[in-house]
Amino acid sequence: MSLTRRQLLRATAAAAVLAPLVPAVTGCAPGEVVPETQFGARLPIPPLDEGTLDGGTRTFRLAPQAGTHEFVPGKPAQTMGYNGAYLGPTLRAARGERVRVAVENRLTEATTVHFHGMVLPAAADGGPHAMINPGASTNPEWTIDQPAATLWYHPHPHGSTEKQVGYGLAGLFILDEPGTNEAAALPHTYGVDDIPLIVQDRRLDADGKITFDPAGNSLGTLGNSIAANGTLGAVLSVTTQRVRLRILNASNGRWFKFGLADHRPFHMVASDGGLLAAPLELTSVQLSPAERAEIVVELKPGESVMLRSFAPDLGRVNPPDAFGGGKEFDVVRLDAAASLAPSAALPAAFAALPAPEGTTTAVSRSFTFNGRSINNKTMDMNRIDFTAAPGEAEVWFVDNVSAYQHNVHVHGVQFRLVDIDGKQPPPERAGWKDTIPLLPREQNRIAFRMPKYADSEHPYMYHCHLLTHEDEGMMGQFLVAEAGAAGPAGSGTPSPHQHG
Fold first, then answer.
1. HEC profile for 358-378?
2. What letter does residue 163 receive in the DSSP assignment?
3. Separation CA 368–CA 6 (nearest Å)
4. At the N or C end, where does the chain have fewer CB atoms within 10 A?
5. For position 497, what pLDDT does the model report?
6. Alpha-carbon distance 452 to 145, whole Å?
């Protein structure tokens, strides 16, 4: 595709901080009444699991299982969770450590556990080929070899990811990097001034049970209720001058634009794959499904402020408030204590980020997202879309030629966003990423190095992380293998597309 043709294809009113929320009706049935949410429930903190050391390997145990969880008091809903009824523990390990995750499937259906954002061998990645049958177990193992970051884990069974994530299978995986001053420079006491925040919209019926959109829409199910760590109307009691929020958009299709209700600035310190070059002062940060942002908020003694999602920018959709645009709602209230413990000042800068590698000498590939297809193909578990060399520099041109939004997640790597339609990306997307939004009629160029782990049998995935799109086939797969290595039956290695 020539550049000319590609271009043709791409042809807040804030409520009072303490006011109760009436969530936006988005993706709901016409005329459906969304109940008012009162804020007052304590924000639960997922348990921290640092594993156990076994012969030098840090071992975690996860058991996906069914349970019940009350989004609405007195109205239990059928859910899924890891080691419990809903969501999962926060796993924590450090760079250089050997880790093992022992997974025992206690569900009545097959599942996988994908380690989203982790740089690891394809055999340990937990994609749709790594199915774990009911009652079966698996023990993926690898060495952590990437900077400190907030990653996450979730199921990835082809065709039923939306259901399993929607019922609650998700958890954070925090990586630390020994020998850096990050812990001293940023709030770092888990559950005190370092807070995991898993944000999801959930479509609840009159009985408080999780439902999915039976008619379908361009994004899949959009919820009528907003849960923070599984709780509606959650309140975080803040006891320190500054608090670090590790925000994950774990929704199936909802986009969020996070900010504080009074529009005060905060500092974003990290994106998907780790620290930015320096703290970035913002008043909002937008996250598509699966993206993460670490932000540091400063409070004064005795005050309250609401973390809100303002109307997201969804690009050139028609009408502009379609697919969840034009809506805003409150997420979690931050209540500062009458006396706050002092916090260290934020550093002026973190470690410098290197320039994206190989943008002129890398292998170049093109991917066109449209409908539920990538390059006019839908997912085929028996087809390998291309084979790449271990550690090779790659540049991908990713075009969204449709009239509504997608995003793209690449397994096994952290990449840099080079440009959007040839223009420099916004600073909040300038760091390490594994997922980026794809707005309508927009082209994104990303650069990265392929994983170093050669494997001619187990593929990595690339796909839209709007889970309905993923389940309906908006996904491809690639091998990382030495030249001449044979892939699975039906595999191919199309020639890289060269761009002028």
1. CCCCCEEEEEEEECCEECCEC
2. H
3. 10
4. C
5. 38
6. 11
Answer whether 490's CB lies under 8 Å from 383's CB: yes
State the Cα torsion 79-80-83-84 to the nearest 10°: 0
Find all residues with CB under 8 Å of 125, minimum gap 6, and list them. 114, 115, 118, 140, 411, 412, 458, 460, 461
Cα atoms in the 13 Å half-sphere on the side-chain side of 210: 26
CB 497 within 8 A of CB 362: no
Q: What is the pLDDT of residues 153-194, one digit of tens each?
A: 999 999 999 999 999 999 999 999 988 777 678 999 999 999
Q: Taking the chain, what is the end-to-end CA distance rounded to the nearest angstrom? A: 10
Quote the CA–CA distance of 277 and 233 in Å, as a whole number.
34
Q: List Cα–Cα distances, 168 to 3, 71, 74, 75, 162, in angstroms.
A: 43, 12, 19, 16, 10
| Rg (alpha carbons) of the chain, rounded to whole number | 22
Q: Fill in the DSSP letter of residue 428.
A: G
- Give the C-alpha distances (Å, rounded to integers) separating 309 from 122, 200, 440, 455: 35, 12, 21, 42
Residues 6+ apart with CB under 8 A from 199: 226, 227, 228, 247, 248, 249, 250, 251, 256, 331
Question: What burial letters (b/e) apply to 236-246, b meaning 16+ CB within 10 Å?
Answer: bebebbbbbbb
SS3 145: coil
Q: What span, in angstroms and rounded, lies between the C-alpha atoms of 297 and 307?
A: 10
Distances (CA, A) of 288 to 146, 239, 262, 384, 467: 23, 30, 23, 27, 12
Q: Is the pTM of this model over 0.85?
A: yes
Per-residue pLDDT, 324: 65
Distance in angstroms (rounded) separating the CA atoms of residues 261 and 272: 24
Give the residue from 273, 228, 282 showing the smallest Cα distance to 23.
Answer: 228
- In this structure, are strands 455-463 and 406-410 parallel, antiparallel, or unpaired? antiparallel
pLDDT value of position 356: 84
pLDDT at 204: 94
To 10 degrees, the CA torsion angle through 284, 288, 292, 296? 10
Low-confidence ranges of the chain (pLDDT < 50): 1-34, 486-500
What is the identity of the amino acid at 88?
G
Q: What is the structure's pLDDT at 214?
A: 67
**331 Rama class: left (phi>0) / alpha (psi -120 to 50) / beta:** alpha
CB-count burial class (<10 Å; 0-12, 13-18, 19+) for 353: middle
Tokens of 256: 């969020």
Amino acid making up residue 248: L
Q: What is the pLDDT of residue 14?
A: 29
What are the CA-CA distances from residue 467 to residues 59, 122, 166, 313, 462 (Å)?
29, 21, 9, 20, 13
For 16: left if phi > 0, alpha if psi spans -120 to 50, otherwise beta; the answer is beta
Burial of 57 (0-12, 13-18, 19+ CB in 10 A): middle
